[in-house]
């Protein structure tokens, strides 16, 4: 998706039900395979920037600032389509993920499956966190 | 999935990072098509019941009680697999959805797409809310 016009974005933002912390839940799904990659949060500025730029930008609750996915790691999410749910408090981001979504180096953050022994790891890292970030964080 | 043994569930629950309200985010995805159906919340009891029973149970924040998906509408979600994300605060529920997931009668709650005019409705109800619920709510 190329960026949407500002007027359309502002009109759409009126239908978004940000919570008492000013956030909505974002689910990133790889557009061609349907794989759910990750869940993170967006505030109004993050959603606006995502729709304007066509690159996914979240809001980091821990760092309390915009988190342009891939700005450190290079693992950007190109936005193909964004969909809002019925009560307006979750957005489905259909993306084309460069490389891996997870900070552990795995394609998806959902790499642990509940099974008869507790939790089982079902996928291994494709790259090392050191390759993604050098010495530090997301 | 048939229900998991209690011991395995309790062991897995130790890795789940419930937030300050005791909740985690749940994403329901139709297992065969990959369609993301809905996002809702689970507390510890809801997640435990989901894993024990093999039927998805959420926690309704508005009604402040367990919400056994489909108990009124008949539109149950049979659990096939549950996956936990890297930081333990979101669970991906791979389900087989009977009928529709959305209270509007649509298959998915994500039926509005951001476009150059604002928001566009991209799917229509398959059944009427009245057919699902009679006179009232979820």
UniProtKB/TrEMBL annotation, chains A, B:
Molecular function GO labels: phosphoribosyl-AMP cyclohydrolase activity
The entry's keywords: Amino-acid biosynthesis, Cytoplasm, Histidine biosynthesis, Hydrolase, Magnesium, Metal-binding, Zinc
Pathway: Amino-acid biosynthesis; L-histidine biosynthesis; L-histidine from 5-phospho-alpha-D-ribose 1-diphosphate: step 3/9
First-tier enzyme category under EC: hydrolase
Main location group: cytoplasm
Keyword Cytoplasm: yes
Phosphoribosyl-AMP cyclohydrolase domain segment(s): 38-111
Domain of life: Bacteria
Catalytic activity: 1-(5-phospho-beta-D-ribosyl)-5'-AMP + H2O = 1-(5-phospho-beta-D-ribosyl)-5-[(5-phospho-beta-D-ribosylamino)methylideneamino]imidazole-4-carboxamide
Compartments (UniProt record): Cytoplasm
Gene3D superfamilies for the chain: Phosphoribosyl-AMP cyclohydrolase
Enzyme Commission designation: 3.5.4.19
Cofactor comment text: Binds 1 Mg(2+) ion per subunit. Binds 1 zinc ion per subunit.
Residues noted as binding Zn(2+) in the record, renumbered to the chain: 86, 102, 109
Cofactor(s) for this UniProt protein: Mg(2+); Zn(2+)
Binding site for Mg(2+): 85, 87, 89
NCBIfam families: PRK00051.1
Known role: Catalyzes the hydrolysis of the adenine ring of phosphoribosyl-AMP.
Similarity section: Belongs to the PRA-CH family.
Assembly and interaction partners: Homodimer.
Protein name: Phosphoribosyl-AMP cyclohydrolase
Lineage of source species: Bacteria, Pseudomonadati, Pseudomonadota, Alphaproteobacteria, Acetobacterales
Chain's gene name: hisI
């Amino acid at each position: 998706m190329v960026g949407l016009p500002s007027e359309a974005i502002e009109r759409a933002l009126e239908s978004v039900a940000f919570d008492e912390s000013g956030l909505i839940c974002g689910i990133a799904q790889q557009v061609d395979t349907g794989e759910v990659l990750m869940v993170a949060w967006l505030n109004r500025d993050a959603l606006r920037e995502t729709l304007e730029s066509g690159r996914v930008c979240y809001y980091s609750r821990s760092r309390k600032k915009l988190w342009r996915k891939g700005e450190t790691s290079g693992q950007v999410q190109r936005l193909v389509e964004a969909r809002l749910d019925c009560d307006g408090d979750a957005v489905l981001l259909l993306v084309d993920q460069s490389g891996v979504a997870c900070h552990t180096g795995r394609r998806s953050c959902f790499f642990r499956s509940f099974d008869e022994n507790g939790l089982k790891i079902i996928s291994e890292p494709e790259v090392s966190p050191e390759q993604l970030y050098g010495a530090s964080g997301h």
